[in-house]
Each structure stands twice: as structure tokens, then as C-alpha cells.
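Repro case for the chain-ordering regression, as requested:
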Amino acid sequence: MAKIIVVTSGKGGVGKTTSSAAIGTGLALSGHKTVIVDFDIGLRNLDLIMGCERRVVYDFVNVINGEANLKQTLIKDKRVENLFILPASQTRDKDALTKEGVEKVLNELAKDFEFIICDSPAGIEAGAMMALYFADEAVVVTNPEVSSVRDSDRILGMLSSKSRRAERNEDAIKEHLLLTRYNPERVAKGEMLSVEDVQEILAIPLIGVIPESQAVLNASNSGQPVTLDQESDAGQAYLDTVSRLLGNHVDFRFLTVEKKGLLKRIFGG
Amino acid sequence: MSELLSEPFFELKGSLFPLSVIHSSDLSVAGLQAALQQKLDQAPGFFHQAAMVIQLTPDHQTVDFNALKQLFQQLKLVLVGVAGASTEQKQLAQAAGLAVLRLGQDSKPLAPAPGSSGEARVEQVPMHTKVVEQNIRSGQQIYAKGADLIVRGAVGAGAEVIADGNIHIYGTLRGKAIAGASGDSTKRIFCQNLQAELVSIAGHYWLSDSLQGDFWNKAACIRMQDDSIAIGEL
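-- result from build under test --
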């Protein structure tokens, strides 16, 4: 039985697509057949982050409208076995997605894949609602600042009331908090909310903390999911996150300020 | 062009407002005038241009809504509509330009009290309790109509909890809490941790600025004391 995981946040620019790409890649690296679905119709980005923008022929909306089949549309990742991308349409808007159409595509994907990652658009309108409607689990991406936390709170409300599980009175969507752009130095200075602050407000279990890192920007610019950069702190933090999603217990890292060694202090870090 | 057109210049949003509802077995102009005038004399100013709704029952046979409208105007009140109207009453009210409103199921029509002295009496209606088991998230609104409200989680910033009765919050109150929404100033708000955007009892309210002080970030009880909001220990 495939697991549908929505990556959502309410607020834009907090790292939903980066996280979708990194988590999807991480799951595939651990041997699970995974597809990442871009729900951001009209503002397609996932293909860029995944570095497959030149291979997009058909898209999600084509499949819904029956103009192409899934086999033609899915893009197989060239680096990682078991990883596929279903790109969004760039020329249409969010109204092109219908509940019936999305359900049909997800049902078809569920036959083939273990994990379906839905990369949600920002906002709380139709597109974002469509991305979360069929989800079994949700990764709520949050930056450690007040506006992002409030928007995440709003999306959590939607998850518990507007999803298919809520409408059918089934078990609630399993919610996970993913803190991104975490900078322990700025937390120590009181310029940023701490993990504890955010957790106290949102009151859902923490699945990962991704440190603010140049590696994330480099990864996005070069079309390499950051999980493939296993040297980087952000890459390792995402791999930890994936491991926790799979049910393993992994201690949290990168939460405190790294002490600079004597040499680093003298020569600059 | 199209960008200009798509700018939001018009929005329709549903909101809740406290309205005074008049329950009276006598809806003749003379009868209502006497009763209202007595009420107005008790609290002149309080009801100035207040929005009011008349609760109808099947016993109200012929009501002259046009005349009632004029009466309200004379008394410096605004009659906005009727509630509980029958089909016939509905037509008459609408012809007079009044809104036909619907109250929730649990509001009972005033039973004609045989042998009552005609004096205005506040009936103590037994309160129900509405219990919410989880956190109330930003943007959510919970209304406990004619009931107390118990929230077993937190009320997030940007969330609203409203009750005609008391409000108990066993988590942190970061949003808005409105108790005694139908005007009962004996109702209270209790919370484990006070960080509210707004607290209100029977229409009197304080914003978070006024709440900073001894009880901010602490357990607190908010109630009305001498026509003003007071905060005390839980």
C-alpha cells in the first residue's frame, strides 16, 4: 500500500520543493520506490531542483485530461534508482486540477510506488487543498520565524478538517514538523525562534531540523537534491529526517552552535 | 489590464455579531413601547442605536412590522430583522424590509407564562457544554452556542473561540476568546496560559496590550467586575 505524504507549509519560500526533492531522493536512496508529484501548477519548480527540466514532455494536467499516460509522463531520475518525478504544467493554473482527476492519478501511482510525495504550492487555496486532500502523512515545513509558524498553524487546521481522512472520519493525517533554515547562532542571540519555541506553539512531533546552509542553495542551483551531497550538514540532516520518516530513531544534530577550534579561530572558519 | 482587474476591491466575509433578541409575548406597538421604554430608562445610552432582532412565535398572529420599525426609530433603536418566523410572518417581515434570520435549534421560544406578572425576568437556562479535544489552529473559529466551551488544547494565534457561556482552555490561549457572547456578563474565561490577542466578556474587550502584566504567560481567570474586565489567579 502506497503512502501519500504531502509536503506543505502555507507560507511560500520556506523550502517545500527543496524538502520534497530531498526527502523523495532520500527515500529512493533507502531502496523505496518513490515518485515526487509537483502540485504547483503554473509555477513549476520541482523539475529545476531535480535537474530534469529539459526532459519534461508531458505533465500532470495532461495525464488528468487523458492526453498522455503516466508511463509517458513520469520522468525517471538518472542518478538514483527507484526515483520518479511527475512534473506540473507550467502553462495552466491550479483550477486545472480536479478532485476526481487527482484521485485517479494517485490511485494509478499507488499501484506502482511505495511513497508518493506531493509537493504542495504555497497558500491555502485550491492548489494547496488538492495537494493535502488525499494525504496519509504531512510534513509541515516551517522556518523559525513567527509568520511561518502562524501559517503552519493554519495549514495544520486545514489538515485536520479539510482532508479526505477528516471528511470520512478516518484516522487523522499523521503530522510531522520539519524546521528548515535553522541557524543555532542566531537562535543563541535571540534573533530566531528556537526548536522548543516552535514546537510549543505547533505542538506536533518533530521529524527534522535542517540547518541554514550554503549547500542547499548550491544544490538548488545545480539541480541536485541536497540529499545527494552527503558531505553537507543539510544533506545529512535530510537523510536523518528520511530515516525518522521510515520509523527509525535518530538523534537530532546541528541544533547547537558549533564550537570553533583554535586553528579555525585563528585562520577563520 | 487583467492585473488591474484582479485586484481585490470587494470581499464578502461571514462574521458573527452580538445582537439583542427581544422575546415578548406582546408585540403590539403600545405593549412593546412600554417594555422597551422601561429597559431604556434603566440604561440610557447603552442601547443607543443598538441593533435588535424580534423573536417571533406562532402565537404572534398579526404583527404590524412597519409600525414596529417606526417605533424602534423613535426610540433610537435599529430593528434589523426577525427570527423564528412562520411562512406568513416571513412574508410580512420581508415586505417591511426586515431580514429574516434563523436561530440555532437549541434556542427555545419563549413559552407564554400563565399568570406571570408581566415583569421582565431573566430565565436561567441550563447551559450545555461543548468540548473540543484538540488544538484550535490559526484561522479556525469555534462557537459554543448557548453553552460553555472547554478546549483541551491550545488556541492558536489567529484562532477564535466564542461561547455564550464560560470558556475553559487547558492549553495556551494565543488567539481570541469571547465569553458571554449573548450578553451575559457573569461569564468568565479560564486559561492555563494567557497570551491572548483579545479577551472579551459580554461585549467588553481587552487587547493583548492591556493584558501584559502579572498574569501574562501565566494561568489566569478573566471576569467582569464593576463594568470592567478584571484578571485574577486561576
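Ordering looks correct now. The longest strand of chain B covers residues 167-173.
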